[in-house]
Amino acid sequence: MVTFTVEDHAGNRQPIEAPDDMGLSLMEILKASEYPVLATCGGMALCATCHVEVLEGKDGLGDATDVELDQLEALPEYYPTSRLACQVRISDELEGAVIKLRGEDN
């Protein structure tokens, strides 16, 4: 299991514990935890409605792919630590990370 923190649109922070051995994406965990993540494209990196900002712990996540960057760079608010939650896999690298929701619901 891996534990990370999610900051919602109102600034409230909540720890989340997720299995790191099932190949799940951050988007799937956020949706299962009932956060307002639209994920319109179903995790194909085509819509950017699962946009998050990694406030702490980005170093272990690796770099965004070109497809992911294309979507992120088209957003009105794009940060150096922006990622698409559908492209971030739940793994040890997320331990202790702080993720801020940025998707369309803000």
How would you describe the overall organization of this protein?
The chain has about 110 residues and is of the alpha+beta class. It has a single domain (about 1-100), classed as Ubiquitin-like (UB roll). Helix content is about 15%, strand content about 25%. The chain has helices at about 25-30, 65-75; strands spanning about 1-5, 15-20, 50-55, 80-85, 100. Strands 2-1-5-3-4 form a 5-stranded mixed sheet. β1 and β2 form a beta hairpin. The longest helix has 8 residues, at about 65-75. The chain is globular. InterPro entries: 2Fe-2S_ferredoxin-like_sf (IPR036010), 2Fe-2S_ferredoxin-type (IPR001041), Adrenodoxin-like (IPR001055), Beta-grasp_dom_sf (IPR012675). GO terms for molecular function: 2 iron, 2 sulfur cluster binding; electron transfer activity; metal ion binding. Belongs to the adrenodoxin/putidaredoxin family.
What fraction, in percent, of the residue positions are helical?
10-25%
Low-pLDDT sequence parts: none
Number of domains: 1
- Strand order, largest beta sheet: 2-1-5-3-4
What is the mean predicted local confidence, pLDDT?
93
Strand content: 15-25%
Largest sheet: 5 strands, mixed
Question: Looking at CATH, which topology would you report?
Answer: Ubiquitin-like (UB roll)
SSE order: EEHEHEE
Structural class: alpha+beta
Overall CATH architecture: Roll
GO molecular function: 2 iron, 2 sulfur cluster binding; electron transfer activity; metal ion binding
Cofactor: [2Fe-2S] cluster
Domain 2Fe-2S ferredoxin-type: 1-105
Keywords: 2Fe-2S, Iron, Iron-sulfur, Metal-binding
